[in-house]
Amino acid sequence: MTRIFSGVKPTGHLTLGNYLGAVRQWAEVDQHRADALFCVVDLHALTVEHDPGRVRRLSRHAVTLLLAAGLDPGRCTVFVQSHVDEHARLSYLLECVATDGEMRRMIQYKEKVARERARGSSVRLSLLTYPALMAADILAYGADEVPVGDDQRQHVELTRDLAVRFNQRYGHTFVMPRATYPVVAARVMDLQEPTSKMGKSHDSVAGIVYLLDEPDVVRKKIMRAVTDSGQEVAYDPESKPGVSNLLEILAACVGGEPGKLSGAYTSYGALKKDTADAVVELLRPLQYRHRELIADPACLEGVLRDGAEKARGMARPTVDAAYRAIGL
Ligand code: ADP
What pLDDT, in 10s, does the model give residues 225-267? Predict the structure, then answer.
C-alpha cells in the first residue's frame, strides 16, 4: 500500500492556504487511499524566534484543527514530531550526507534569513539544516508520496537527492519519495500582498484567512483584498495576481477552473462577495467540529499518545537500519 507523509508547522494558526493547499487533500483523499501519516512538525517551529509556551499551545491547536478538518485517527496516523525521537536521530545522519552548499541554495532559507534579519533576530543554524530534518521526516517512514503545496517543491527534491546519495554510499536504505500537488490552489496568495504566499507566520494579519476566523472576519478580509488596476475579471496570475488569487480560492471552494469562472463576473465586488460566501461555507463544518473537539481535551491526549506510538513503531526499523548502514 502506498505510504504518505506530510506535515504542518505550529508557527501560527492554520490558514486557508494550509487547508486548500494541503490539509483538505489529506482529509478528503489521502487518508482513504493510502497508509498516511500527518505530523505537526514542532521541531521545525524552533528554527525561527519562538515562544516555548506558544509553540506547545499551537501544536495542540494544530492537531485539533487537523481532526476538525476530517483526519480520522482510525484511518491515518496523526502525531507530533518531537514525540518521536527518530526524526532528530535520522536528521543528524542526513546532515552528514548533505552539503552546506545545497542547504544554502534553498529559496525558503534565503527568504527566512531576510525576514529574520529584518526583524533584528540572529539566524539560527537550524534554519539552514531544516531541509535535513524535513528529509528525515519523510525518509524515516519510507513515504512514497509527500502531498505538499508548491512552496515545498525544492525541499522534497533535496530529500530525493539525499536519499539517492545515502543509498549509493551506504547501501539501499530509503524509499524514494515524490511530491504531489493539488490541482488548484497549490499556492494561495496573501490577500493584501498577492505576490507572496499566504503564510501563517507572516505579520500582516489582514491578508490571511485563518481557519477559525468568524464569518464576518472572513468576509471583511476578502472584501478588502487587494485587486488589480483595470476592471476586467480575468485569470492571469502574472498581470492580475490579486484577482487570479480570488478566482483560485473560489474555484478551490466551489469546483471548476479559475479561468472559466472568471467569465461569470463583470465586477471585482461580485467576485469578492461570492468568494467570501464560498470560504465561509467551506469553513463552517470545520469550525463546528472544532468546537466539539475542544470540549473534550482527553480525546486529544489519547490521539497524541496513540499517534506517537504508532509512528515510532514505523520509523524505528528504518532509522536503525540507517545507523547500521552508515557505520554505527
Ligand atoms: P506555513 O507557510 O503556513 O507555515 P507549513 O510549512 O506549515 O506552512 O505548510 C503546511 C502545508 O501547507 C504544506 O504542505 C505547504 O505546502 C502548505 N501551504 C502552506 N502555505 C500554503 C499556501 N499559501 N498555499 C498552498 N499551500 C500552502
Answer: 999 888 899 999 999 999 999 999 999 999 999 999 999 999 9
Residue labelled with grid coordinates 488589480:
228
Q: Which residues contact 48 (CB under 8 A, 6 or more apart)?
A: 11, 112, 115, 116, 121, 124, 127, 201
Ligand 1 near 11 CB (within 6 A) = yes
Question: Do 138 and 286 belong to one domain?
Answer: no
Q: How far is the CA of 29 from the centre of ligand 1 (A)?
A: 18
Question: Which of left, alpha, beta for 28 (phi over 0: left; psi -120 to 50: alpha)?
Answer: alpha
Mean pLDDT, rounded, for 215-234: 94
Residue nearest (by alpha carbon) to ligand 1 atom 2: 199
pTM of structure = 0.93
Identify the domain containing residue 19 by its residue range: 3-180+297-326
| Statement to judge: residues 159 and 217 lie in one domain | no
The reported pLDDT for the residue numbered 202 is 74
DSSP class of 20: I
What is the interface pTM, i.e. ipTM, of the complex?
0.97
Question: Which residue has 552528514 as its cell numbers?
Answer: 96
Q: Are residues 275 and 148 in the same domain?
A: no
CATH number, domain of 143, equals 3.40.50.620
- Give the whole-angstrom CA distance, residue 24 versus residue 70: 8
Residues with a catalytic annotation lie at 112, 197, 200
